[in-house]
Structure formats: structure tokens, C-alpha cells
């Protein structure tokens, strides 16, 4: 027997199928699946318009009386009349991407997907930490949302073995001004002092996830929302102590003090830069371009 949930899914699936089949290409009358260049059109007419709309039209001529009927059966017989009908129904040639724009769009798409995978990989790392699993699920989500954008650069450094990622540099340089980009790049480069001791940055990734000071929310506001606030503080203190002990193993006491001061200072600098970058992104980039997880992380929702 089909459950009510399965029945709802079946009905929704059938409705979507019917909705798609009801669309009709305004150029040839064939089945269409949505809007292309601002008009409902089939895949064939979409591809045709992309290939021909930017061509110099006087070179095209109709062999008959320039009024050919365009149907699914006849659409390949007369390029002139088919293109004329595309323009008659107001398909927009300015929406056609150039080869360079297509290349950039593909790079953007790959970058956003890659960037999302980086965030997801780091989230999976946190979810495997016993201390992180001990806290309330709502608190886990809130800490990730508030802190991960300030920690992701450490993840990049570790993932890329302390080598700057050229793709990230390319897109950061497009989103933000050169001064801000140079400051962020300088911070990334400064962590090369731990290139022989990557465990330092791994401990930092964990310790700083349990702190509310990195939050994009005011400290008092985040504190009110946290359920296991005291447990989170205990975990933070545990990993900060672990970091301090490890620094004392690899350095003498003076250098260990300087190292932990350096880490805190660089994170405070990066925190300010992240706030500034967030403001720039909100002003220059459509938030709908981001994956829902990225929108949440960047507080765009």
C-alpha cells in the first residue's frame, strides 16, 4: 500500500511532468522546458538563436517571400524566417554570452562548487570531533554559521600545503579592492611560519570553532542563542590549553608566547577583513548566485 508521503511525491512528480509538457516553444511550436533569452523556447530554437542572433542579418536571405511558416517540421528549412521570428517574439540577443563570458561563467561555476566542497569538507571534519558532537545540534549549526568563514582560510592553507591557490586569488581579486586583497594574502602568507608544524593550525581550527568572539553576531546575541554555552567554553579552554602545551613542546617558552600572540592577532585582523569583504559582496554580487550553505555562512539569509 502506498503511504501518504509517497502519494504526495507521486502527485508532485506528475504535476511537474504535466507542467513541463504544457509549455510550447513560441518559435516553432514544439515542446519547451522553460525560458531562454527571455522567451519560452525549445532546446533546438535556443541553440539556433545562440548560433545565429549575432550574425550580420543582411547576409541572410529567404528563398521565398520572407514569410515562411516556422514549425517543428519546417524550422530547419529557412534560417532567415526562423531568426526573424525569434526577434519578432522579442528574444534578446544581448543575453547571449560571448566565448570569453562563457569561459568566465564556467570558471565561476567551478569555483563556487569547489568553494562549497571546501566548506563541506571542513564541516565534516568538525562533525567527527567527539567534543563537537557532545554539544547540542542547534549549537553546532550556530557555531558553524558564525565561525566557519573566519576559519576557512586556515583550512585552505592546510589543504593546499601552504601554497597560495591561484583560483581563489583570481576571484578574490575580482570581488574586493586590491588593498583588501593584498592584506588577506599577506595574512595567508604569514602562517607559513608554521609550515613545519601544521598540527598547530589543525588545533587552531578546532579551538577557534568553540569561541564566540569570531562570530558575525554580537557576542551577547550569540550567547543568548547558545544552549550549551558552558560546555562550549569548556571545550574551547581544553583546546586552547592543548595548543599552548603543544607550542611549548616545539618552541621555548618565549617563542611559544609570541606564537600564540601572533595567532590571535592574525585572526583579529582577518576577522575585520572578512567583515569588510562581506559588505563588498553584498553590494556587488547577487546573493542568489551562492549555494544555500554559502548564503548561510556569509549571513546572506
Overview features:
two-stranded antiparallel ribbon, disordered N terminus, Nuclear_hormone_rcpt_NR1, 301 residues, Retinoid X Receptor, RNA polymerase II cis-regulatory region sequence-specific DNA binding, 2 strands, nuclear receptor activity, 66% helix
Q: What is the CATH homology-level superfamily of the largest domain?
A: Retinoid X Receptor
Mean pLDDT: 76
CATH topology term of the largest domain: Retinoid X Receptor
- Classify the beta-strand content into a percent band: under 5%
Order of helices and strands: HEEHHHHHHHHHHHH
Transmembrane segments: 194-214
GO molecular function: nuclear receptor activity; RNA polymerase II cis-regulatory region sequence-specific DNA binding; zinc ion binding
Organism: Rotaria sordida
Protein name: Nuclear receptor domain-containing protein
What does this structure look like?
By secondary structure, this protein is mainly alpha-helical. It folds into two domains: 4-95, Erythroid Transcription Factor GATA-1, subunit A (Erythroid Transcription Factor GATA-1, Chain A, 2-Layer Sandwich); 99-297, Retinoid X Receptor, CATH 1.10.565. Helices cover 66% and strands 1% of the residues. It contains 13 helices and two strands, in the order H-E-E-H-H-H-H-H-H-H-H-H-H-H-H. The protein has a two-stranded antiparallel ribbon with strand order 1-2. Helix 8 runs antiparallel to helix 12. The two termini are 40 Å apart. The model is unreliable at 1-21 and 110-114 (pLDDT under 50).
Amino acid at each position: 500500500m502506498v503511504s501518504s508521503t509517497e502519494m504526495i511525491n507521486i502527485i508532485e512528480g506528475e504535476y511537474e511532468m504535466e507542467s513541463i509538457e504544457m509549455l510550447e516553444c513560441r518559435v516553432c511550436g514544439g515542446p519547451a522546458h522553460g525560458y531562454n533569452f527571455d522567451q519560452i523556447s525549445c532546446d533546438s530554437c535556443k541553440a539556433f538563436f545562440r548560433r545565429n542572433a549575432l550574425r550580420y542579418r543582411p547576409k541572410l536571405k529567404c528563398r521565398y517571400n520572407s514569410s515562411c511558416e516556422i514549425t517543428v517540421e519546417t524550422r530547419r528549412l529557412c534560417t532567415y524566417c526562423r531568426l526573424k521570428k525569434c526577434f519578432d517574439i522579442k528574444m534578446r540577443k544581448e543575453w547571449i554570452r560571448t566565448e570569453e563570458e562563457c569561459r568566465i561563467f564556467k570558471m565561476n561555476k567551478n569555483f563556487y562548487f569547489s568553494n562549497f566542497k571546501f566548506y563541506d569538507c571542513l564541516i565534516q571534519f568538525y562533525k567527527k570531533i567527539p567534543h563537537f558532537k557532545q554539544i547540542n545540534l542547534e549549537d553546532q549549526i550556530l557555531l558553524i554559521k558564525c565561525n566557519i568563514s573566519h576559519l576557512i582560510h586556515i583550512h585552505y592553507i592546510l589543504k593546499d600545503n601552504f601554497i597560495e591557490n591561484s583560483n581563489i586569488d583570481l576571484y578574490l581579486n575580482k570581488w574586493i579592492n586590491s588593498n583588501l586583497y593584498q592584506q588577506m594574502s599577506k595574512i595567508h602568507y604569514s602562517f607559513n611560519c608554521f609550515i613545519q608544524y601544521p598540527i598547530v593550525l589543525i588545533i587552531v581550527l578546532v579551538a577557534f570553532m568553540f569561541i564566540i568572539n569570531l562570530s558575525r553576531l554580537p557576542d551577547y546575541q550569540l550567547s543568548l542563542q547558545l544552549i550549551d554555552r558552558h560546555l562550549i567554553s569548556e571545550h574551547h579552554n581544553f583546546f586552547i590549553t592543548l595548543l599552548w602545551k603543544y607550542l611549548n613542546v616545539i618552541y621555548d617558552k618565549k617563542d611559544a608566547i609570541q606564537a600564540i600572540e601572533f595567532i590571535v592577532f592574525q585572526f583579529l585582523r582577518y576577522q575585520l577583513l572578512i567583515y569588510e569583504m562581506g559588505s563588498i559582496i553584498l553590494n556587488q554580487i547577487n546573493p542568489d548566485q551562492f549555494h544555500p550553505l554559502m548564503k548561510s555562512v556569509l549571513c546572506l539569509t
